[in-house]
Write a structure and sequence with these properties.
Blueprint lengths: L2 E10 L3 E4 H5 L6 H8 L3 E4 L7 H16 L8 E5 L10 H8 L7 E4 L5 H14 L6 E7 L12 H4 L5 E10 L21 E2 L14 H5 L6 E2 L1 H23 L16 H11 L10 H4 L6 H10 L1
Parallel strand pairs: 4-5, 4-6
Antiparallel strand pairs: 1-7, 2-3, 6-7, 8-9
Length: 305
C-alpha cells in the first residue's frame, strides 16, 4: 500500500479579536482568572452574522492547496470535521465543495468534536493507502461564538472557545520513512454528560427543543471541568505512547509535540509527564482559545510557517 502524508497545511482566523477584558464586560470574570486556569488571553470571533464553518474553511483550504502545490480542482474528496456545522443538514463538507467549485466530489462530515481532525485523518489515511483517492482535503472548522452562554451561568465554558479553521491536503508519499506512521483512536461514552450540549435532541418528543429547555440554557455546552481535566491529562500521555510504540520511536525522537489546544495547563502537564521540553511543544491557545476540530490543523499550519 502507498503511504499517506500531509502535503500541505493552511489556516484562517476571523479578524475580530475578543480579549479576556472584553468578556469581563459580559460576565463575572477577569483576565487573571481566565489566564491562570486556561492560559487563554484572547480568541477570535466571526465579524458578523451569516458566516458559517464552511466559510472559514475556504481560505484555509486554499492556503493548504497552495502549500501542497496543487489546484483546488485536484481535490478528490473532502472530509470536514466540526461540531458547529453551518446547518443541521446538509453537511458543511458539501457546502465547502460548492464554494470551492468542486461539484460531484464526495464530502464527509465528521462529528467527533475535539478529536474530529484525528478521526478524519484516519479516514483520509485509509483512502490514500488503498488508492481510492489521491488528494483528500481534510478540514477542521468551528464557529463557537454564536453558541455560547455569555452570562455568569455559562462563564466556565464561554471563556474557552473561539472560531477558526485549519486544513490539510493528505496525499501519497513515496519516500520511505516519511508520512503518517500511526494513528490510534479511542472513545468512551460513559462520560458523555460531563461535556455535552443537550439540546436540540432527536430523543426529545414531541419537539427537539422546548421553551423550558431554552430558558434553562440546555442548548449551551456544559462541562464538568475537573473531570475533563483529569481525563485529558491521564489519557493523552497514554495514547501518545501508543503511537510512538507503533512507529518504533521514543519521546526523544520527537521534534515537535502538537497537542489539541483545549487548555494550556493540560498541555503543559501532559508534556511534562512525557518529558517533552517546553520548546518542543506547540502552543497557540493563548491567541485563539479552543477551536475544537480546528486546533490541530491551525497549530500545524502555524508551526510549519
Amino acid at each position: 500500500m502507498t503511504q499517506s502524508t500531509v502535503l500541505g497545511v493552511g489556516h484562517y482566523l476571523p479578524s475580530r479579536v475578543v480579549t479576556n477584558a472584553d468578556l469581563a464586560q459580559l460576565m463575572n470574570t477577569t483576565d487573571e482568572w481566565i489566564t491562570q486556569r486556561t492560559g487563554i488571553k484572547e480568541r477570535r470571533f466571526i465579524e458578523h452574522s451569516g458566516i458559517g464553518a464552511s466559510d472559514l474553511a475556504v481560505p484555509a483550504a486554499r492556503m493548504a492547496c497552495e502549500h501542497a502545490g496543487i489546484e483546488p480542482r485536484q481535490i478528490d474528496a473532502i472530509i470536514f470535521a466540526t461540531l458547529s456545522p453551518d446547518y443541521f443538514f446538509p453537511g458543511s463538507g458539501c457546502l465547502l465543495a460548492d464554494k470551492l467549485a468542486l461539484p460531484g466530489i464526495p464530502a464527509l462530515d465528521v462529528r467527533n468534536q475535539c478529536s474530529g481532525f484525528l478521526y478524519g485523518l484516519s479516514v483520509a489515511d485509509a483512502w490514500i493507502r488503498s488508492g481510492v483517492y489521491r488528494h483528500v482535503l481534510l478540514v477542521g472548522a468551528e464557529v463557537h461564538s454564536t453558541g455560547l452562554d455569555f452570562s455568569d451561568r455559562g462563564r466556565d465554558v464561554a471563556v474557552l472557545f473561539g472560531d477558526g479553521a485549519g486544513a490539510a491536503i493528505i496525499g501519497p508519499e513515496s519516500e520511505e520513512g516519511r508520512g503518517v506512521h500511526s494513528i490510534r483512536l479511542h472513545a468512551d461514552g460513559s462520560g458523555a454528560r460531563e461535556l455535552w450540549a443537550e439540546a436540540p435532541s432527536s430523543a426529545n418528543a414531541p419537539e427537539r427543543v422546548s421553551v423550558q429547555m431554552l430558558e434553562e440554557g440546555r442548548q449551551y455546552p456544559r462541562m464538568n471541568g475537573k473531570y475533563v481535566f483529569r481525563w485529558a491529562t491521564e489519557k493523552m500521555p497514554e495514547v501518545a505512547l501508543e503511537v510512538l510504540g507503533d512507529a518504533g520511536l521514543s519521546v526523544d525522537d520527537v521534534h515537535l509535540f502538537v497537542p489539541h489546544q483545549a487548555n494550556m495547563r493540560i498541555n503543559q502537564l501532559v508534556a511534562n509527564r512525557l518529558r517533552i521540553p517546553e520548546e518542543k511543544t506547540m502552543h497557540n491557545i493563548q491567541k485563539y482559545g479552543n477551536t475544537t476540530a480546528a486546533t490541530i490543523p491551525i497549530a500545524l499550519s502555524e508551526a510549519w510557517r
